[in-house]
Amino acid sequence: MSIESPQPTTGATTSAAGQLALQAVYLKDCSFEAPQGPRVTAEWNPQIGLDLNTAVSVVDGDLHEVLLTVTVSAKAGEQTVFLVEVKQAGAFLMQNLAEPDFRRAAGVLCPGVLFPYARAVVSQLVSLGGFPQLLLPPVNFEALFAAGSAEPASSAKN
Q1: More confident position, 18 or 120
Q2: pLDDT of residue 2
Q3: Residue 133 CA: distances (Å) to CA of 8, 64, 123
Q4: What is the SS3 assignment for 152?
């Protein structure tokens, strides 16, 4: 009695289905500035500003680097209490993705994977700077992507 195992398929016979696979997550750059130091009063209630930006570049062939830049500023009145910038990157294999699927992966799925890492780094930097813990809220990248996709259409109508 013999048992035959299926033979692996070669790259030439694989289907053209799209593939998105995370290869690596890494911190590309970060900075923390506290011009006045951690002079926190009992009434610690700064205005927090959050800015997100995503960039995509080709590393090699179907391997792309997605860079999520998270900038957080805290102000008390007009005075900057602290400023944090984190550039969290990931290497993603993106094969056989149509242009709309590629844009959605780069604008929604990849930043969604990277954001928890960036949020942890922001929290740690703020704490190490002597300030109370800062926990950034979850971000709906799907809604941001939809709003960003709608902007060019709405500005073209004006």
Answers
A1: 120
A2: 40
A3: 51, 33, 6
A4: helix
Number of domains in the chain: 1
Residue 85 backbone dihedrals phi, psi, to 5 degrees = -130, 125
Domain span at 80: 19-132
**Whole-number Å distance between alpha carbons of 98 and 101:** 5
The model's confidence at residue 151, banded by pLDDT at 50, 70 and 90, is: low
Q: Which DSSP string corresponds to 69-120?
A: EEEEEEEETTEEEEEEEEEEEEEEEEES--HHHHHHIIIIIHHHHHHHHHHH
24 has a pLDDT exceeding 80: yes
φ and ψ at residue 150, rounded to 5 degrees: -80, -25
How far, in Å, CA of 96 to CA of 118, rounded?
A: 28
Give Cα separations from 111 to 19, 25, 61, 134 (angstroms): 17, 11, 20, 20
Q: Which helix (H) or strand (E) holds 32?
A: strand 19-33
Within a domain: 95: yes
Kindly report the CATH number assigned to the domain that includes residue 113.
3.10.420.10
pLDDT(72) > 90:
yes
